[in-house]
Amino acid sequence: MMAAPSENESGNDLQDRVEKFYEDAKGYWASVTPTVDGMLGGFAKISPTDINGSKSFLRQFLKISGGSLMPNRALDCGAGIGRITKRLLLPIFDTVDMVEQDQHFCDNAREFIGSDSSRVENIFCSGLQDFTPAEQGYDLIWCQWVLGHLEDDHLVKFFQRCQKGLREGGVLIVKENTLESDKRAFDDSDSSYTRPKWDLEMCMINAGLKVLSVQKQKGFPKDIYPVYMFALQ
Ligand SMILES: C[S@@+](CC[C@H](N)C(=O)[O-])C[C@H]1O[C@@H](n2cnc3c(N)ncnc32)[C@H](O)[C@@H]1O
Predict the structure, then answer these.
(1) pLDDT of amino acid 10
(2) Residue 158: left if φ>0, alpha if ψ -120 to 50, beta else—which one?
(3) Over the chain (233 residues), what is each successive 10-residue block's mean pLDDT?
(4) Would you say the CB of residue 38 lies under 6 angstroms from ligand 1?
(5) pLDDT value of position 183
(6) Which of 67, 84, 139, 212 has a CB 3.0–4.6 Å from the CB of 61, allowing a cystine?
């Protein structure tokens, strides 16, 4: 586990390490421009492929395609300025809420989203480790390119709160970078972990989530991490 105490580490040292993990990430994102390129670390060009891949993965779960998912209310987690809210969720769902830890992204989101931002009901400025989705509040909860910013215990508990936040027939979708090796990698520039796929799946299983479907995103450049989509309940 990421935050397991190392040899001779006291409880206070562990707490300091976890605090530093979150504080360093905050510091990194506070310095990033509120643009799609900023959200994607200079890879704005992959955004249309990403959104199209997400749309086709999501489609199978929608009521209109024979699934259980009503297109009523969605939650975008680690939403940044609302790239996914604007391009994926608002075209499908009646209303969307966003949760994002960085204040300047939250402040810029409505302008970035434009006129449809009237259907964004809430923008919660909070770390996911401290956030609880409204119980049975959402048909869809979408988490993308953010969960490497949570340490394992917080991630498992967050998954459990998401499960409670789903309405009947609702789905939690996770879309994250993964590693093909057996060990996770730490990026000290933005203070995040990239987990191997099995490691991320362990967190899902430990949270008691059921995996409905897993798919690899196609069409991304060869030099970026493999990205997987997981549909969960
Ligand atoms: C790579 S960007 C992705 C943004 C958005 N999901 C997208 O795909 O366009 C990561 C986002 O996660 C946010 N973030 C980082 N740590 C977070 C945390 N602990 N809780 C919530 N959001 C966090 C960052 O501020 C940033 O907006």
Answers:
(1) 80
(2) alpha
(3) 61 90 98 98 97 98 97 98 98 98 98 98 98 98 98 98 98 97 95 98 98 98 96 98
(4) no
(5) 95
(6) 67
Any domain includes 5: no
Number of folded domains that form the chain: 1
Ligand 1 binding pocket includes 144 (Cβ within 6 Å): yes
Residues 6+ apart with CB under 8 A from 99: 75, 76, 77, 78, 79, 123, 124, 126, 128, 131, 133
- Look at residue 3 and tell me if it is in a domain: no
Q: For residues 121 and 93, is the Cβ–Cβ distance under 8 A?
A: no
Given the CA of residue 29, which atom of ligand 1 is nearest to it?
25
Range of the domain at 73: 11-232
CATH number of domain containing 204: 3.40.50.150
Say yes or no: CB of residue 195 within 6 Å of ligand 1: no
Evaluate whether residue 6 is within a structural domain: no
User: Quick one: which atom of ligand 1 is closest to the CA of 144?
Assistant: 6
Q: 64 C-alpha vs ligand 1 centroid, how far in Å? A: 30
The ligand 1 atom at the shortest distance from the C-alpha of residue 129 is: 19
Q: Which atom of ligand 1 is nearest to the CA of 143?
A: 6
4: in domain: no
Please report where in the chains the tokens 């000290």 appear, as a residue: 188
pLDDT of residue 11: 79
